[in-house]
Amino acid sequence: MDEVEHDVTEARQSKTEAGSFRTEPDGTRERTKVPLALSEAFLADLLDRVCQRMSDYRLEVDPVTKEKTFKRFAPRKGDKIYQEFKKFSFYSEAYRPLKFACESIIEEYEDEIRSLIAREARYLADKLCAEKPGLCKTSPGRTEF
Predict the structure, then answer these.
(1) I want to staple 121 with a disulfide (CB 3.0 to 4.6 A). Which of 4, 62, 96, 116 is the partner?
(2) Domain range for residue 47?
């Protein structure tokens, strides 16, 4: 959900034209500017491609608790180091379960995720977990799917 939240936060700062492609009798078209994050095309594209970025995460084990978590290690496109980083290639089988889990969550809860975005909710993971008991396990300061 961090990836969805990141893209939605950036998209909330942009606007796009929306409206009908129908031409009125006077030759004009009814078009309005809406936040990009509320655009159907943006949401469809985002939810289709978000799970592909799971290879940007690596599995880490806490040395004390032995708890396993996935953490992002790759910079995002806008980060200063991104241009240098993309010259390297990383491959690991460890992210496959994360990608599968992401795809499963997106497929099963797509309507709920879209609804949260439309309501301009922040902290999407926390809100989705609150609305769908049993989807996540929580511990102090953390929400996990």
Answers:
(1) 116
(2) 1-126
Each residue's pLDDT tens digit, 8-37: 888 888 888 776 667 777 877 777 787 788
What pTM was estimated for this model as a whole? 0.67
58 exposure class (CB count in 10 Å sphere: 0-12, 13-18, 19+) = middle
Is 107 a domain residue? yes
Q: How many domains does the chain have?
A: 1
Is 135 inside a domain boundary? Answer: no
Q: What are 19's strand-pairing partners?
A: 31
How far apart (Å, rounded) are the C-alpha atoms in residues 124 and 72? 17
Establish if 137 belongs to a structural domain.
no
The half-sphere exposure of 62 on its side-chain side, counting CA atoms within 13 A, is 6
Q: How far is CA 22 from CA 16, 19, 40, 124, 131, in A?
A: 18, 9, 18, 35, 38
In a domain, 29, yes or no: yes
- HEC per residue, 53-106: HHHHEEEEECCCCCCEEEEECCCCCCCCCHHHHCCCCCCCHHHHHHHHHHHHHH
